[in-house]
Specification:
By secondary structure, the protein is α+β, with helices and mostly antiparallel strands. It has a single domain (2-241), classed as GHMP Kinase, N-terminal domain (Ribosomal Protein S5, domain 2), CATH 3.30.230.70. It contains 6 helices and 9 strands; from the N terminus they run H-E-E-E-E-H-H-E-H-E-E-H-E-E-H. The protein has helices spanning 2-7, 90-104, 109-112, 130-151, 182-185, 216-241; strands at 21-25, 33-39, 42-52, 65-72, 115-125, 164-172, 175-178, 190-197, 202-209. The strands form 2 sheets. Strands 1-2-3-5-4 form a 5-stranded mixed sheet. A hairpin with a 7-residue loop joins strand 1 (21-25) and strand 2. Helix 2 crosses helix 4 (130-151). The longest helix is centred in the last third of the chain and has 26 residues, at 216-241. The chain starts with a helix and ends in a 7-residue tail after the last helix.
């Protein structure tokens, strides 16, 4: 059963392999930073915009803010969905909060100064893993934006202090799998997302027994898979951005 499931995975990949991942930076002229992220057939356009000032509750703290917005375009799925209106979809709000807090863990907000960076993640095509693709691509867009401002001497030191990426895992037909596409995600017994750093630390775990509870051994197995995926993703991020660590 397990071998048959592995052969049937998209792109002929094994249970512990990602879909083909492409991160294309600098795809939008007017954004301070941008990235088109592709996890197989899932495609998300991520942009980062830097603006003077911070939210009212943040003023006077001599520190900046990083936030995110997320939306699925109407034709991103196989049936058109109504265009989202701000504040109406709880799922989108939950995802953009995940993106924002994930990015903030790798930014020194005091080095940023009283600036706000907004990362917009717009799903062009959805085939599973849109939130994890968004986190991964938003980091690249954020890097490009901050690098440009440092190069322009608008920020004295690079506020970015690390990398963050995210990936999905799950149990499908009794097999633990990495980076689920839609067909796998829709029939998963266990569905999980992992957000982590380049040095192997965990930022967030989202896990649900969709059809059955899972035990500690399954959880450990899924986390191991997820960290394999994140190690690959941060390597791709570094390749496309030239990131070499906190001194970059």
């Amino acid at each position: 059963m397990a071998d048959e499931n592995i052969r049937q995975r998209s792109y002929g990949r094994a249970y512990n392999q990602l879909r083909p991942v492409t991160l294309t930076p600098d795809v939008m002229k007017n954004a301070n930073g941008s990235c088109l992220v592709e996890f197989g057939d899932t495609r998300v356009l991520c942009t980062a915009t830097i603006e003077e000032g911070v939210p009212k509750w943040r003023r006077g703290q001599k520190a900046g803010w990083v936030t995110a917005e997320y939306a699925m375009l109407p034709a991103s799925t196989n049936r058109r969905s109504p265009r989202e209106q701000r504040g109406r979809k709880g799922r989108s709000m939950e995802i953009e909060r995940l993106i924002g807090r994930s990015l903030r863990t790798v930014v020194d907000l005091r080095k940023l100064g009283e600036l706000t960076v907004t990362c917009d993640c717009d799903v062009l095509q959805a085939d599973g893993g849109t939130r994890t693709a968004s986190v991964t691509g938003a980091w690249v867009a954020l890097h490009q934006a901050l690098r440009a401002w440092v190069d322009a001497d608008k920020i004295h030191r690079m506020p970015l202090v690390g990398q963050v990426a995210a990936v999905s895992m799950g149990e499908v037909d009794g097999e633990l799998m990495l980076d689920l596409d839609y067909t796998e995600d829709s029939r998963a017994q266990v569905d999980m997302n992992l957000v982590g750093t380049a040095d192997g630390r965990i930022i967030e775990v989202q896990g649900t027994g969709e059809r059955t509870p899972f035990d500690r051994a399954q959880l450990d197995g899924l986390l191991d898979l997820g960290q394999v995926g994140i190690a690959t993703l941060v390597e791709i991020q570094a390749q496309v951005t030239g990131w070499q660590g906190g001194s970059h």
